[in-house]
TrEMBL record:
One of its GO terms (biological process) is oligosaccharide metabolic process. Signal peptide: none annotated. This is Mannosylglycerate hydrolase MGH1-like glycoside hydrolase domain-containing protein. InterPro entries: 6-hairpin_glycosidase_sf (IPR008928), 6hp_glycosidase-like_sf (IPR012341), Glycoside_hydrolase_63 (IPR004888), MGH1-like_GH (IPR054491). Residues 36-415 form the Mannosylglycerate hydrolase MGH1-like glycoside hydrolase domain.
Amino acid sequence: MEARPAVDDAALGREALAVLEANWTGTGTVPAPGLYPHQWSWDSAFVVIGLARHRPDRARDELVSLLRGQWATGMVPHIVFHTREAYFPGPSVWRSGDNRAAPHDVLTSGLTAPPLHGLALWWLYRHTGDAAFVRQMYPKLVRQHAYLTASRDLGGAGLAAIVHPWESGMDDSPAWDQPLAALPVIRYGYRSVYRGVDLDERHPDSDHDRYVWLAMRYRDAGYGAGYLRDEHPFAIEDPMFNGIWLASCQAMAELAPLAGADPKPHSEQAERIRRAMLDRLWDGCFYARDLRTDRLIRVCTVGAFGPLLDPGLPSDQLHAAVEMLESARFMGATGYPVPSCEIRAAQFDRTRYWRGPSWVNTNWLLRRAAAVHSLDHLGQQLTNGTLRLVRQAGFRECFDPFDGSGRGCRDFSWSAALTLDLLA
Ligand code: 2M8
């Protein structure tokens, strides 16, 4: 495994800030130079969190810039293209400019991403006390949540459905294998967009072709909510997406009074999500539910721990989930936290993207979950293990959970940003 010279905390922090500076385009932070040359939604929310203490000015610009891409429906797109076409699928595929709900002055994708922005705004407020900024952003995030309620509650129980693997942020998670296999493969052959990374570590061409097909089908239906409800072949209630949404609802409840608003609708929404996750996704573990077959997808991934972000999670589920996280199915067997898929699953692959490697962002989310439940020992393990990863291998996209070697691209923004937070 590649070894880096030992760096102390101050030097690591300086390196992290330098990566974020290099990845700042003037209008937003790209997730990684070359590979991801635009602004991605949940990546930006993690950047806001990481910069909250160190560069609050930049954190504010990041969020403002991302939300310039928000649609009139309230949808916050998963990619905002402030720069020319440099990634596939780019603006010419999404054609947001042809859709009346999309913004006029900036091109975007047509999908959304985990709604982490409420939590990110709360994090920023917590570290800056900038209530004026909260007042500015709050109405936009209210509209984001309203979109999820109005257009994504495809199961009718209060959860938001993802309609594409890209919306989960965990593209090739084994949880999407079955629903994806039901889709046709039409050759587009654009996976070569992944420049500078080992293609064996990413999803196969056939999956990428299905991703593109699914995105174009949604586009051709005008990105309509009715189409999603009645016809779209991929609709899944994901515990990580909904756990993040719940955490953002709770954050919005705390921010609401600063914006002169009533916190109650946000707390009620959080309760609805909690109840629905317990009723529909829990069966000894939180699984994703495929709405097209109305079945749980029984593979346990790191997504299973999203509901732990909820301080109100009942103790039975909390204890069972933490036990599983600490067991030999997850961190108990690997040297480093937290594999993206349980290691005893047939689909587990320590080298392949969201099918096994550890990620700084999910480690950070679980550390946040440990904090809300006062699980100090677990929180410390997650912090130390994650810092060991970046100290040894640098700010890589993801890491082998057994030996800690770096995978995917280098100079990855959320790995750098969240390191800053972990060091604080
Ligand atoms: C990955 O997703 C993009 C598609 O959105 C891709 O693979 O091309 C995921 O890791 C996702 O979580 C992340 O937001 C994005 C940019 O870092 O890359």
